[in-house]
Structures are given as structure tokens and as C-alpha cells.
Amino acid sequence: MRGSEFAELKAFAAVVERASFARAAEHLGLSPSALSQTIRLLEERLEARLLNRTTRSVAPTSAGAQLYARIAPLLREMAEAVEEARSAGGQTRGVLRINTLAMAVPQLIVPRLGRFHAAHPGVVLDIVVDNGLSDIVAGGFDAGIRVGGRLEKDVIAVRLTPDLEMIAVASPEYLRARGTPRSPADLHRHACINWRLRADGSAWRWVFEKRGKRSEVAVEGPLITNDPEVGLAGALQGLGIAYVLDPRHVDECLASGRLVQVLADWSIARPGMFLYHPSRHRTPAALRAFIDCLLDRDRS
């Protein structure tokens, strides 16, 4: 394969993974017009249309999707081989793409950014906050951070936190106006803040358990969000009851009395947060370093 052909395939993969010519061009250090010309040359050489383009989006055609599925693992293997060669020279380098739930950002990632950069200045962290449970392989990510019960199949998973408790909370003002629910069934008479966490856009059903009795409730209310901060703000402002994964997110609000826990005897524990990545023969050096940092093993 000639160098120009490899460059064309690398450019094509970058466009598919970022679903954007502008973002792919920035990643590759090219102008958008130069990238468009590269893709045109590839399509002409293969005599096939590889991308469907509109003013708002870019997506692979059937032929493009088939080509990407074949070349993506090879490109990743080559990138890992180059990274290993560089690491052998004494410093970990490269771009590390992480897809993470929003709730992991303040607890796990933000406190460690400075320390990771100081130890590995040659690594560029590309962190995408995504509550939609996207496929990290299809998105071109090196790893994802999810709650354990929502991991993709056939992955290597590393536990980052203990199990997390689900708690229902509301403001004192809301409870004075609407009363306090005594069982999950009572939530049908309450305003609730709904979570939209699934890639298909459907709302999440609230799950409770007490003495072996399990209850799933489809709630309704004036606010639906996929961002924990928006849901917390809604609860604090009296819009309704929120169901929170990880009480540490609302500890301060509970301690100050700005929020009150309800249905405490129905609370359940959920698997904690995990970092997961595709099963490969070798874990990239930058990813190993990032995992060590999240687990504070780099301090030992």
C-alpha cells in the first residue's frame, strides 16, 4: 500500500469516527477542503461512494460502513504499535479518547487531570461526556466509563468505585405542597424528574426493592434530562422528586436540608462505575497510565 492510500484510509476513518469533516480535519491537522479532496480521491479510487453528506451530518454508506468495519481494527493495531515504540523510548504519547457518563466527571476525572498531565505530558486526553450509552468501538473511543450494569459485552472492565445506592430526593417545599410518598406506587401521584439515559431516547424506569419485593415505576413530571446537574437543579427548585445514583452527588444538599430523602426503605444498590475497553492483545500504554491514575495507583 502506498503512503497516499494509507493516508486516505486514515482520513476516512477519522471522518466516520467523528461524524464531522470539521472535527476530523482538526484532528488530522488538515483543512476541511483538503480532507474533502482526500475523501474524493479515495472514493474515485475505490469507485464507490463511502459517505453520505448533508449540511448538518456525515454518515457512512453501506459500502463505507463495511470498509470502516474492516480497517478500523487494523488502524488501531498500527496506532498501538507506534505508541508502544514511542513508549519504549521513555515517554507515553498519543491521543486517548474516553467516553464517560457525566456523573464520573466531577468524582473521578476532574480531580486527576493535573496529575495525569504532569506525569504524561505527551498524552492528549479527548474526553466526551455522553449519557446515551454509545458504542465506544463504533465511536472510535479507546475506553468508556459506565455503571457496571450497563457495560457492553465482550469488554475488559476495571472497577473504579464501590456499588452505588439509588436514593429518591425532593425539596422540603415540594413535599410540603404535595406530600411525601410512602411507597413506589405513590409516585404516580407525584411530579418526578425523569432520566433519559438510553441511546434510543426512552425514559428510564425507576427500580425499587424492599424485603425482596421489587417494584419498577414509569414516572412522569415536568422535567426530563440526561444530565445529573439539570436533574439536581430541578429537585432543588421544587419541580419534583429526583432519583439519584450515588448519594455523594447530593450529600451537601441533604446535610443542609435543601433536599430530603424519601422512600429510604425502598432504596437499592447498583453496580459501581467501571472503565471498560475492547478486548485486545495489548492495552495501549496511555490507557494503562490513565487507569492507574483513576485508581490512584500512580501515587504508590
The best one-word shape is elongated
CA-atom Rg in angstroms? 23 Å
Which structural category fits the helices and strands?
alpha/beta
Overall number of strands = 15
Helix count?
10
Largest sheet: 6 strands, mixed
- Beta content comes to 15-25%
Oligomer: single chain
Task: Explain the overall architecture.
With 300 residues, the chain is α/β, with parallel strands linked by helices. It folds into three domains: 89 residues, Winged helix-like DNA-binding domain superfamily/Winged helix DNA-binding domain (Arc Repressor Mutant, subunit A), CATH 1.10.10; 87 residues, 3-Layer(aba) Sandwich (D-Maltodextrin-Binding Protein, domain 2); 107 residues, D-Maltodextrin-Binding Protein, domain 2 (3-Layer(aba) Sandwich), CATH 3.40.190.290. Helix content is 37%, strand content 23%. Strands 7, 8, 11, 12, 13 and 14 form a six-stranded mixed beta sheet that branches. Strand 9 and strand 10 form a beta hairpin. Helix 1 crosses helix 3 and helix 1 crosses helix 4. The mean pLDDT is 87.
Keyword list:
six-stranded mixed β-sheet; 300 residues; alpha/beta; five-stranded mixed β-sheet; 37% helix; D-Maltodextrin-Binding Protein, domain 2; Arc Repressor Mutant, subunit A; 3 domains; 10 helices
Secondary-structure map with pairings?
Layout (H helix, E strand, L loop, with lengths): L2 H16 L2 H8 L3 H15 L4 E3 L4 E3 L1 H27 L5 E7 L3 H6 L3 H7 L3 E7 L13 E5 L7 E5 L4 E7 L1 H7 L13 E4 L10 E5 L2 E5 L5 E3 L2 H9 L4 E5 L5 H6 L3 E3 L6 E2 L2 E6 L6 H10 L6
Parallel strand pairs: 3-4, 3-5, 8-11, 8-12
Antiparallel strand pairs: 1-2, 5-15, 6-15, 7-12, 7-13, 7-14, 9-10
Helix pairs in contact: 1-2, 1-3, 1-4, 2-3
